[in-house]
Amino acid sequence: MRVQLSGIQVRRNGFNILRDLNLETRDNEYIVLLGNNGSGKTTTLRTIAGLQPMESGSILFNGVSVHRLPPRQRSILMVFQDDTLYPHLKIGKAIRNSQPTELSASEKADQLTEITTRLRINQLLDRYPDQLSGGEKRRTAIALAMAKSSALRLLDEPLSSLDARLRPFLLREIRHWHKTAGGTTIHVTHDSEEAMQVADRIAILSHGRIVQLASPTEIYQHPAHLDAALLVGNPMMNLIKDQEQQPDDASHRIELPAHLDEAIKSRQRNLDTPCMIGFRPQHLSVDRREPSQDKASRDALYLTATVDQIWNSGADFHATLIWKEEIVRLIIKPEETQQVAKLHQTQPGQLIALRVASKNVHLFDATSGERLNA
Questions:
Q1: % helix / strand / coil in the chain, to the nearest 5?
Q2: Residues 6+ positions from 52 with CB-CB distance below 8 Å
Q3: Which of 1, 107, 328, 361 could bridge to 321 as Cys pair (CB 3.0-4.6 Å)?
Q4: Which ranges constitute the DSSP H helices of the chain?
Q5: CA–CA distance from 235 to each of 204, 232, 340 (Å)?
Q6: Co-location of 243 and 155 in the same domain
Q7: CATH number at residue 267
Q8: Pick from 328, 371, 23, 369: which is nearest to 223 by CA?
Q9: C-alpha to C-alpha distance for 169 and 158, rounded to whole angstroms
Q10: Strand 77-79 vs strand 64-65: parallel, antiparallel, or unpaired?
């Protein structure tokens, strides 16, 4: 199933919820819509399902227009964020009612056993929804959807109501469902780790439009928008605003790679708009070398900051640093023994010199959020 959204506009109470939203999936693809609260994720899903009227735009399934069809005629499955279970039906009966009529009695029995066993609700079939915990209700809602057949599955925050122990388990089962059933899955979440684990591609939503659609690796390594940089990665990317260096703040300096330094100065001359400089905590290294005085040959970002706190998380060594009024995070792997030693030679309150390779420095327009460097 290929889904194509073109120029989708949705307004609610006088506000633009979706603004010229465009999305095109591939056959059998797992797409995750990732964004902050209010970015338009659930509205996009409801628009695809036909539950949300739109002002303008088109929706195509396999090249055929469906935006005028009612929800029942779109042949989709949707798992809602709030579990929609039948209060008068026992769990087993509700799942059996969801199974395709063309299945034989033995096929239905086999499917019921497989789904409920995989989701660990096979002991709950004689219970009513009000006898289930939040996590059990969520798994039952997924089971109801799994029992049906469709080439397009829409999942709205499918891991809500689950504790941390169950989330990886259910995420694996949802991915297994996608692979075995075939077709396309569109999954909404605000959790970047969840998105990175299951998505073939992630669509980053910001203020009602998609600002990047790419693989998890591409978004992590090359975010096309400030919101993509902030949403993907844990901890989030360090971001500091480019500022003119003042004579009295030489202790907290920043020296940019030559090509970025020139790009910022050119932008300031022509547009007078601020830039945001980004780099991930894992890409910072402790470096006592002085940056090259020849700016044209400078091949890295150099930063001087004040150590605030150093700690061992068990898996990595972490530090929080202060650059002017900004907090900067640093993460070092234990096997990087020289880096660990350099870090522990400093104390809170002391200055520390840091370096980021040019390829790991990201530049964004602070107003539009758009990426500025290649």
A1: 30, 30, 40
A2: 10, 43, 46
A3: 328
A4: 41-49, 91-98, 105-118, 134-147, 167-181, 192-198, 216-221, 226-231, 258-270, 337-344
A5: 18, 9, 19
A6: no
A7: 2.40.50.140
A8: 371
A9: 12
A10: unpaired
Question: Degrees (nearest 5) of the Cα angle 8, 217, 276?
Answer: 75
User: What are 45's two structure tokens?
Assistant: 């899903």
Q: For residue 111, how many other CB atoms are within 10 A of its CB?
A: 17
269 pLDDT tier (thresholds 50, 70, 90) = low
**Average pLDDT estimate for 95-114:** 95
- Distance between CA atoms of residues 338 and 199, nearest Å: 36
Rg (CA), the chain: 25
In a domain, 372, yes or no: no
Specify the pTM: 0.92
The whole-number average pLDDT for the span 67-81 is: 93
Distance CA 126, CA 124 (A): 6
Q: Which of 58, 116, 60 is nearest to 91 (CA)?
A: 116
Return the closest-CA partner of residue 59 out of 51, 49, 185: 49
Q: Which domain holds residue 318?
A: 238-365
- CB-hemisphere CA count at 13 Å for 359? 2
